[in-house]
Amino acid sequence: MQLTEHFSLEALIASETATRKNIDNTPPSEILANLHILAQGLEQVRAAVGGRDLLVNSGYRSPALNREIGGAEKSKHMYGLAADILCPQFGTPLDLCRAIVAAGIVTDQVIHEFGKWCHVSLPAPGAKPKGDLLTIASVAQGYVEGLNPVV
Fold first, then answer.
1. Helix H segments across the chain?
2. Closest CA to 13 of 75, 71, 82, 74
3. What letter does residue 76 receive in the DSSP assignment?
4. 139: exposed, middle or buried (Cβ count in 10 Å: 0-12, 13-18, 19+)
5. Which has the closest alpha carbon to 81: 47, 50, 126, 46?
6. Rounded CA separation 104/33 (Å)
7. Structural domain boundaries of the chain?
């Protein structure tokens, strides 16, 4: 099912871990509206990077999948409102995070994670956007304010 011009439901629910562990990652019907919102937000990100293709490493995660990968207990991924993305044609994950902010895209969080990807989450319908900008270099260090290089 195509959610927007460049993002399909299949792309936003794909998971190698779910396949390998035989975890059903099919979103319930109440999550579909959020996945449309996420796809629309990703279209904005795509526009911010000059129309370059985004790679979605992780979109929707069922609660079982989220537990399996050690995701946050209240992860926005479980609500269909977050994605971990890359855009190698544009630049580094930090470049991508900064492009989202520079474009003024309304977000709950933009996180530069481990120097390996950009996590972007969107506010739930009717909720006030948090606008958090964070970096995590290691689990031991935890999250720090701002979008920073990871060394």
1. 9-13, 16-21, 29-48, 63-69, 93-102
2. 82
3. G
4. exposed
5. 126
6. 23
7. 9-145
Place of tokens 């609500």: 79
Walk along the chain (151 residues) and give the pLDDT tens digit of each residue: 999 999 999 999 999 999 999 999 999 999 999 999 999 999 999 999 999 999 999 999 999 999 999 999 999 999 999 999 999 999 999 999 999 999 999 999 999 999 999 999 999 999 999 999 999 999 999 999 999 999 8
Q: How is domain 9-145 classified at the CATH fold level?
A: Muramoyl-pentapeptide Carboxypeptidase; domain 2 (3.30.1380)
Judge whether 37 and 79 are in contact, CB under 8 Å.
no
What is the Rg, in whole angstroms, of the alpha carbon atoms belonging to the chain?
14
Q: Which long-range contacts (CB under 8 A, 24 or more apart) does 134-137 make?
A: 134/109, 134/110, 135/111, 136/111, 136/112
